[in-house]
Amino acid sequence: MKGKVFFISLVFIFMIMPLSVVHAKAVKVGVLLPYTGPLAWVCECAHAVDLAVKEINEAGGVHGDKVKKVEADTEGKADASVAGARKLLDVDKVLAIIGPTSVTIRSVIPLGVERKTLIISPTAGTTALDKDPHGGKIVFRTVSSDTVMGSGIVYHAISLGAKKVALFFEDSESAASIKGVVKPGCKAKGLQIVGDVSITPGAPSYRSELLRLTKNKPDAILYELAPPEGAIVFKEWTELGLTGQWIGTDFVNDKFAEFTWPASKGVRGINPAALISPRYKAWAKDLQAVTGKPGVAQFSENAYDAMNIIALALEASTKVNRKAILDNIRKVSSPPGEKVNNFSEGAKLLRQGKDIDYDGVAGSQDFDKYGNSITFLRVVVIEGGKLKRIGTLTDKEVGPIVTEVLKLRK
Amino acid sequence: MIYLGFGIITGAVLALPAVGLSLLCRNAKFFNLAYGDQLGLTAYLVLFFNVSLGLNFLTSVGLSLIISAMLGIFFYWIIFKPLREHGGLILLVASLGLAFIIHNTELAIWGPNPQKFNIPFETGLRLGPFIVTPIQLTVIGLSLAMTGGIFALLRYTGIGRAMRATSDNIELAAIKGVDTERTFIWTWVICSATAGLGGVFLALITTLTPWTGFTALLLLFAALILGGVGNLLGALVGALIIGMASECAGIIPVLAPYKIAIAFAIMCICLVVRPSGILGKERGF
Fold it and tell me: How many CB atoms lie within 10 A of CB A355?
């Protein structure tokens, strides 16, 4: 009899064990960013995902399961991005992907559609996604479209008193996206474009292009350059003794400032960023505890929000799978619902059966029909080889230009 | 005229490594695809000594060139010498593998971002119609002097004559008592040091990233084919033409985004019209 009881208990334990193993399995979320290659500076924002994961796990995890971040490298190239996404989706079996950048996101979208998995990018501002057919269904963004950033650049040029501007953009998808906003933005606001120079990345020199750029004496130069080209351009700019106000994009970041200094002294940039508030300051302190470094890397706020939204979407469902995230992403991030600022607050309310509306560090993260959100912008200037924040642009300031750009682009 | 000056700067920076690569192609009988990355590696070694260890810039360059020359011998012994008998194609593929190893080593150690040496930042001087910085003037002078030095070495020294004899006919040179093995080693030493110095010049004039060498290699090959493969004077002329053509392309709005492609278009036209290159006597090595 004792043997039988022992045998039945053993069978029961073996029956239960797989269930408990499944239950204890981590909820995997993929982070697909350029960890190597010329855009590797972007991957610094992944530390904010670590912070969100830490907070989620400290709050008990998603339905009691720990969340785990799994990384894959895009190298900033389409083929590597697809390979990375395949690895995340098919080998690691992640439930959602955070990333990639504008440069490669469109190569990864078909995989997300095929596997019915959320792709939520904290960095891809490309205007190519503004009305993407999969936007708002499979693809979401926690960063503003380049339409907002480009309009911010035009706004800042006007606020500096510029009447004539010149454009200096690389021949790349990311730069073309911004240029596609800046040009109509200038037209809408009556800014005369007196120079329009496209450059090829990888050339040994851009001196001729710089002379052509300044031929008609622009008041400001609106531009986007990756760090290697930026290092050459600003060096040659200073060597040639040229003067003028440069206003750039989110490529004007800490690394850019470090590697182009001192030639880039006074160069300005318009970056996606959060409003400075006590909440933001406390969050930045928590992030710095994770990174062990001062400052907040570009797109960190957006990456943090993306991770929280995924976790809350899972928490809002009774199931932990890819579909649950897609079904609940809008429910947890957009009104109506009680405002929450982090996973812990949101999960508590969800468990009480209440509706929530996640307001992120980067912005409200209320997604439009195409999965786009509006986040704030900051104005930075390069001083002493570092970025210095000198202002903030809100939707009130930039919004009218965005509207006019959208009208012109139609 | 000012654009001509820009072209001379770019051409002069390319000239020295182009001559070194031409010499290597002529003697080793293959296109060394790792040459560009060897060029970048030396610049990174200078960065290590100059920025990481805080050594004087000239001392850093000297030490790096010695290491670059030693690495040249090492690569020859370990990779290219054992594969020499298998022909140019195998050597070419092996050099591609070496290029990847060097490139990824640079990426792993120094990362993808641009780097700069610990030297003062300069503004340009106006010399007539030209704008040029003291560093650029030094680089132009040194590049042309070193190129002249290589010509003199080949013409007036014993090792130079041995190198020419070996490149013309290795068996005949051996029968005549030329130590061909020693000649090969010297070829790799000279070409690696030349590549190294070219890399330092390139990093001084432009910037230093793990892609600097590879991008330069494309332009160097264009210069080589344009001037005539294996013809040292041709490499010099080719480099100057490529430099000037790419700078002049920057003036024309339609051509500016295709600056690098212009170099290859010129190379392709040359291959069709004159396959041996401008100064080459016959096709190939």
Answer: 13
H runs (alpha helix) in A248-369:
254-260, 278-291, 300-315, 322-333, 343-351
A389 Cα to chain B: minimum distance (Å): 23
- C-alpha distances (whole Å) from B90 to each of A112, A286, B82 are 42, 55, 11
List CB contacts (< 8 A) between A260 and chain B. Answer: 114
CA B98 to chain centre: 16
B248 CB neighbours in chain A (<8 A) are 208
- The structural architecture, per CATH, of the domain A147-273+376-409 is 3-Layer(aba) Sandwich (3.40)
Nearest chain B Cα distance for residue A228, angstroms? 5
Contact predicate A310/A96, CB 8 Å: yes
Q: Which residues pair with A192 in a beta bridge?
A: A164
Nearest CA to A405 among A217, A232, A189? A189
Measured distance between the N- and C-terminal CA atoms of chain A, rounded to whole angstroms: 81
Taking the C-alpha atoms of residue A66 and residue A343, their distance in angstroms, rounded to an integer, is 13
- CB distance B250–A206 less than 8 Å? yes
Residue type (1 letter), A158: I
Task: Answer whether A392's CB lies under 8 Å from A379's CB.
Answer: yes
The tokens for B252 are: 């024309």
- Residues B153-171 have pLDDT tens digits of 988 999 999 998 988 888 8
Instruction: Read off the tokens for A356.
Output: 């929530």
C-alpha distance from B134 to closest chain A C-alpha (Å): 10
List, for residues B188-241, the tens digit of each pLDDT value.
999 999 999 999 999 998 889 999 999 899 899 999 888 888 888 889 999 999
Q: Which of B10, B123, B257 sits opposite A239 (nearest CB)?
A: B123
Cβ–Cβ below 8 Å for B259 and A260: no
Could you please state the CATH topology (level 3) that the domain comprising A26-143+299-358 is classified under. Answer: Rossmann fold (3.40.50)
Distances from the Cα of A25 to the Cαs of A93, A279, B110, in angstroms? 12, 33, 37
CB contact under 8 A, A239 and B258: no
- The whole-angstrom distance between B91's CA and the closest CA on chain A is 27
Q: B124 to chain A: which residues are within 8 Å by CB?
A: 239-241
With a CB cutoff of 8 Å and minimum separation 6, the contacts of A374 are A144, A148, A363, A364, A366, A395
ipTM summary value? 0.83
Q: Is the peptide bond before A100 cis (omega within 30 degrees of 0)?
A: yes
Written as six digits, the tokens of B202 are 């390139």
Picking from A203, A238, A239, the nearest residue to B260 by CB comes out as A203
Domain residue ranges of chain A, discontinuous segments joined by +? 26-143+299-358, 147-273+376-409
Identify all chain A residues contacting B254, using CB atoms and an 8 Å cutoff: none
Structure tokens given for A171: 């021949």
- Which element (helix H / strand E) includes A150? helix A146-159
Check if the beta carbon of residue A181 is closer than 8 Å to that of residue A155.
no
Q: Hey, do A26-143+299-358 and A147-273+376-409 end up sharing a CATH topology, with the first three levels equal?
A: yes
Is the pLDDT at A285 greater than 90? The verdict is yes
* Contact residues, chain B, for A224 at CB < 8 Å: none
Whether residue A373 contacts residue A352, with contact meaning beta carbons closer than 8 Å, is answered with no
A239 contacts in B (CB within 8 Å)? 122-124, 131, 133, 136
